[in-house]
Structures are given as structure tokens and as C-alpha cells.
Design a protein that fits this description.
Largest sheet: none
Number of domains: 1
Strand content: under 5%
Radius of gyration: 16 Å
Number of helices: 10
Distance between the termini: 20 Å
Order of helices and strands: HHHHHHHHHH
Structural class: mainly alpha
Length: about 260
């Protein structure tokens, strides 16, 4: 039964990563904590490791469809990388005082994200080939926000993807598909940094479950990214919103 949980967690995480550029942790962390009895810091480690390849392959799919801004995405990646290192250490300290704390934070974040996509869908914006030039001020702001997002992702293992979406849609003005594509590119680096940091600080590694979750996450991400690049934007928002709300409510109910 527990291996079925690993499969569902991996596939679900891959789907939200490929569809909306969200961190795999919004699915993997609450499921492993609430349904499989994992400690939250170890669950976050698996989620971050899964995020690396799922986000990377999703980003490649968006890149082939010309839905990634490589220049500004690279700049934000640098500051996000630094923030993730600090956030991972803070998350380690927090997990020592509240072993289940990160899991509950991730569950609540999942529900919030579901409401966000349903009530305030991300529509409109420029594509990656837009001729308009972003101001240096906006790019600098995006880099500062990227550092904070990296901290959040390193601390909780989740939230980074949707916050990146906010930066690229509201600050830089891109449409949802470009925002998702650029977000997944950045999250692959952020997740790699976070996973290495967590492991170096003593997170427990369970090779079998980790490989199973990662493999399923990779499969879900590739399939959903292909679908997302052909999907109408409002429909994409509704699908992701409903899935996240149901997931968050169910995992919290089971845990309580």
C-alpha cells in the first residue's frame, strides 16, 4: 500500500510541475508526511530530488515550444540559488523543533495555491519572443524576489514554483506558459541546490522509495508539460486549481 502512495505522489507531483511549474513538494511532501508517516525534512528532500529532473525535462518541453525567457530566467536563477542555501539551513533548524511543521506548512500552501488558480487565474501577458525590452529596474526586482523565493523553497520545499509564476506574470508581464516554462527552468537549479543542502545536513535517504517517486514524477512531468503547451490557459488554471485544493484538503484531513 505504501508503494502505491509513492507512485501516486510521484505522478501527481509530475503533473503539477509540468502543468503549472509548481514545486513537486506541494504533492510529495504532504503525501509522504500524512499518508506514509515520513518526517517532514526527509520528505522535503525526496520532493526536491524529484523536482530536479521533472523540472528540467518540463523546461525542455517549454523551450522547444519557445515558452522560456533564458536571459532573465538565468539572472533570477543566480539569486534564487543563494536564497535556497540559506533556506535549507533554516528549514533544518525548524525541523529539529517541529518535526511535522514543514509538512503542515506544505499542506496549507497546497490549498492556498488551489484557491489562487481558481479565483485569480493567470491570463494575458507577453510571449518569450516579445520585442519589448524589460527595464533594468524590473529585472533587478525580479532577482531580489528570486532570492526570497529560493529561501522559501529551501525552507519548505514548496511554494517556489507559484511564487516564480507571480514574478514572471506580474513583475515581468509574461503570459502563463512563458512564466511556467521559465519557472521550471529555475526550479530545476533551486531544487538541486536544496536537495544537496538537505542531504549534507543529515536528511535520511531511502533509495528504493526515492527512485520510485522520482521516476513517477518524471513520467508525469513530461506528459503534462506536453499537454500544457497545447492547452487553453483558463482551462489550465482550473485543472491545476481543483487538483491542488482536493489534494490539500484530503491530506490535512487524514493527518488530523
Amino acid at each position: 500500500m505504501v508503494y502505491l502512495i509513492y507512485i501516486i505522489a510521484g505522478l501527481g507531483a509530475g503533473v503539477v510541475t509540468g502543468l503549472a511549474g509548481l514545486s513537486a513538494a506541494v504533492v510529495i511532501t504532504p503525501m509522504l508526511v500524512s499518508l506514509a508517516g515520513w518526517e517532514s525534512y526527509d520528505a522535503v528532500t525526496v520532493a526536491l530530488a524529484s523536482d530536479v529532473f521533472a523540472s528540467l525535462l518540463s523546461a525542455y518541453t517549454y523551450y522547444k515550444n519557445k515558452n522560456i525567457d533564458l536571459k532573465r530566467g538565468g539572472l533570477v536563477s543566480i539569486t534564487a540559488f543563494l536564497g535556497t542555501i540559506v533556506g535549507s539551513y533554516c528549514g533544518y533548524l525548524f525541523s529539529q523543533k517541529s518535526p511535522d511543521g514543514l509538512g503542515y506548512i506544505s499542506m496549507l500552501t497546497t490549498i492556498f495555491l488551489g484557491f489562487k488558480f481558481l479565483l485569480k487565474p493567470v491570463t494575458g501577458g507577453k510571449d518569450a519572443t516579445s520585442e519589448s525590452v524589460q527595464s533594468a529596474r524590473k529585472t533587478a526586482l525580479a532577482m531580489v524576489l528570486g532570492c526570497g523565493i529560493g529561501w522559501v523553497c529551501g525552507f519548505t520545499g514548496s511554494g517556489g514554483g507559484v511564487l516564480m509564476l507571480t514574478v514572471f506574470t506580474l513583475v515581468l508581464g509574461y503570459n502563463l506558459k512563458v512564466a511556467v516554462g521559465t519557472s521550471t527552468m529555475i526550479m530545476s537549479l533551486v531544487a538541486l541546490t536544496g536537495a544537496v543542502s538537505h542531504i549534507s545536513m543529515g536528511a535520511k535517504i531511502f533509495p528504493g522509495p526515492m527512485l520510485l517517486v522520482m521516476g513517477c514524477c518524471l513520467l508525469g512531468a513530461v506528459m503534462s508539460a506536453r499537454f500544457a503547451n497545447k492547452c487553453e490557459i483558463r482551462r489550465l488554471n482550473r485543472i491545476v486549481g481543483v487538483v491542488l485544493m482536493i489534494l490539500g484538503i484530503v491530506t490535512i484531513a487524514i493527518k488530523l
